[in-house]
Amino acid sequence: MNELIQKIQEAFDAFAKDAKLQEENGNKAAGTRARKTSLSIEKMMKEFRKTSLEASKK
C-alpha cells in the first residue's frame, strides 16, 4: 500500500507542475499532460480505495 501511496504522490506532483504551467504560461502541452495525469490519478485513487477497504476488514 505504501508503494501505491508513493505513486499517487508522484503523479499528483507532476499534475500540479503541469497545471501550474498551463495556468501561468498558457502552455497547452502542459495542460494536455495534466489532463492525462489526472486520469491516471483517478485510477490509482480507485485502487487505493479498494486496497484500503480490504485492509480495514482484516
Layout of helices and strands:
Elements: H1 2-25, H2 28-56
Explain what this protein looks like in three dimensions.
- The chain has 58 residues and is an all-alpha fold.
- It contains 2 helices and no strands.
- The two termini are 14 Å apart.
Number of helices: 2
How widely separated are the two ends? 14 Å
Reading the helices and strands in chain order gives HH
From the alpha-carbon coordinates, what is the Rg to the nearest angstrom? Answer: 14 Å
Structural class computed from helices and strand pairing: mainly alpha
Query: Can you give the helix content as a percent range?
Result: over 70%
Which range does the strand content fall in? under 5%
Low-confidence stretches: none
Biggest beta sheet summary: none
Principal-axis shape: elongated
Features:
elongated; 91% helix; mainly alpha; single chain; 0% strand; 2 helices; 58 residues
Outline:
With 58 residues, the protein is mainly alpha-helical. The protein has helices at 2-25, 28-56.
